[in-house]
């Protein structure tokens, strides 16, 4: 039964990926994983960029437009990143490679590669880190 659930989950993830990339035109790597509760901005869908082996947990909101200022811009997540539960990534942000964003954070500024950020607004709490697939911290 566990194997069937895993296969069903992967089919749904693959279908969702195809929908985001083919219908909306988002730039999402095939090796990235997007949890079911993640909300990606569909107002300017072509502005969403998610690189290889990154993982977005449930409740993440990734924006690529700002209605109040009438801005449409690109928002990036690099390789091997982990974006925690209920993180909000504001439009125009660039998150580097091998980054971990703590749950509940609001990312208001670019995040350099190989760092951990957390808080509201998100601040760097650790640097010189390395991650493996889906942003899992290497010891």
TrEMBL record:
The chain crosses the membrane at residues 7-26. SUPFAM superfamilies: Trimeric LpxA-like enzymes. GO terms for molecular function: acyltransferase activity. InterPro entries: Hexapep, Hexapep_transf_CS, Trans_hexapeptide_repeat, Trimer_LpxA-like_sf. Coiled coil: none annotated. Keywords: Acyltransferase, Membrane, Repeat, Transferase, Transmembrane, Transmembrane helix. Pfam families: Hexapep. Gene3D superfamilies: Hexapeptide repeat proteins (2.160.10.10). Belongs to the transferase hexapeptide repeat family. This is Hexapeptide repeat of succinyl-transferase. It comes from Mariniphaga anaerophila.
């Amino acid at each position: 039964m566990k194997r069937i659930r895993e296969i069903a989950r992967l089919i749904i993830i693959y279908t969702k990926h195809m929908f985001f990339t083919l219908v909306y035109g988002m730039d999402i790597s095939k090796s990235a994983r997007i949890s079911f509760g993640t909300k990606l901005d569909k107002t300017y869908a072509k502005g969403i960029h998610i690189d290889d082996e990154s993982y977005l947990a449930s409740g993440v909101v990734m924006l690529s437009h700002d209605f109040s200022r009438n801005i449409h811009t690109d928002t990036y997540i690099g390789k091997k990143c982990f974006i925690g539960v209920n993180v909000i990534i504001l439009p125009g942000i660039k998150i580097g490679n091998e980054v971990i964003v703590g749950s509940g954070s609001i990312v208001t500024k670019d995040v350099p590669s190989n760092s951990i950020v957390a808080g509201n607004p998100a601040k760097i709490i650790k640097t010189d880190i390395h991650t493996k697939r889906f942003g899992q911290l290497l010891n």
